[in-house]
Amino acid sequence: MPPSTALVLGTGGLGSALAQVLGAQHSQVLSLGRRSTPAIDYANEASLAEAAAWTSAQCAQAPLRLLVVATGFLHGEAGQPERSWAQLNAAYLSEVFWVNAIGPALVMKHFLPLLPRQGPCAAVFLSAKVGSIGDNGLGGWYGYRAAKAALNQLVKTASIEQARRNREAAIVALHPGTVATPLSEPFSKNGLNVRPPEVAAAEIAQVLNGLGPQDNGRFVDCQGQTLPW
Ligand SMILES: NC(=O)c1ccc[n+]([C@@H]2O[C@H](COP(=O)([O-])OP(=O)(O)OC[C@H]3O[C@@H](n4cnc5c(N)ncnc54)[C@H](OP(=O)(O)O)[C@@H]3O)[C@@H](O)[C@H]2O)c1
Asked: Which of 80, 128, 159, 219 is least surrounded, with the fewest CB atoms within 10 Å of its CB?
């Protein structure tokens, strides 16, 4: 196995589980979150610039072949997902767009330049099927749906720029399925296929392992199947 680095941003349920399983495929796995050293916080772009410089130094002997962005926000102090347009709230919308779309866009700015110009590499942004406009039959969750749709457009756009830098790269939006984490906990009803993070991470790692340039700019689920935008 030639030396390679995988970097996981976000130390929540899925990010932590993914960092564990990716050690089987990469000689070095780096994991950064709001409480790591260095820390990444989307409220502070300078933290991303500093973390990118640190990552670049760590990758001197083992190039960065995989970036996984496992951050996200659905509910918290800023509010809860909306059931009706009557509940639309600027503070919640701002937070949900910030963490799900603006933060990952700044990650693109600071971390995509660290991917090698030659050889296979991938950047995977955890999105959500509810961000699919074509698949929206239920309504509700205005902010989270719209923020993930914005993320998907950012991923598609970055995939086009990345293909000009390295024809072997894949930039992908991935729906992890429903996973038992703090993000999903209040909403995971009986009957949904809620998997433990370790199980979901093992499935996702298989998809990541098979990614190639044919996948650049795709929106896929945790089996690697194409989802509608
Ligand atoms: N769980 C599911 O069922 C499910 C379904 C569909 C899609 N997803 C997506 O999968 C991804 C991972 O979610 P999860 O289930 O693992 O959720 P989680 O356990 O709540 O983790 C969320 C992560 O986002 C990070 N984060 C939140 N605000 C941030 C900020 N301002 N700056 C930097 N990082 C921030 C958290 O950072 P800290 O580690 O620093 O706290 C944490 O690592 C998300 O994109 C989510 O939308 C999850």
From this structure: 80
Question: What tokens were used for 140?
Answer: 């509700």
Query: Distance, CA 137 to ligand 1 centroid (Å)?
Result: 24
pLDDT at 70: 98
Predicted confidence at residue 191, as pLDDT, reads: 66
Spatial separation of the C-alpha atoms in residues 197 and 183, rounded to whole Å = 12
Q: Which residues of 126-144 are buried (b: 16+ CB within 10 A; e: fewer)?
A: bbbbbbbeeeeeeeebbbb
Q: Whose CA is nearest to atom 6 of ligand 1?
A: 128
The residues, ordered by sequence, that sit 6+ positions from 206 with a Cβ below 8 Å of its Cβ are 224
- Cα(first)–Cα(last) distance of the chain, in Å? 35
- pLDDT tens digits, one per residue of 111-144: 999 999 999 999 999 999 999 999 999 999 999 9
pLDDT value for 193:
84
Please tell me if the CB atom of residue 132 comes closer than 6 angstroms to any atom of ligand 1.
no
Is pLDDT of 192 > 90?
no
Residue 190 has pLDDT above 80, yes or no: no
- Ligand 1 atom closest to Cα of residue 144: 47
For residue 83, pLDDT over 90 is answered with: yes
Nearest residue (by CA) to ligand 1, atom 23, is 71
* Amino acid making up residue 67: L
Largest CA distance in the chain: 55
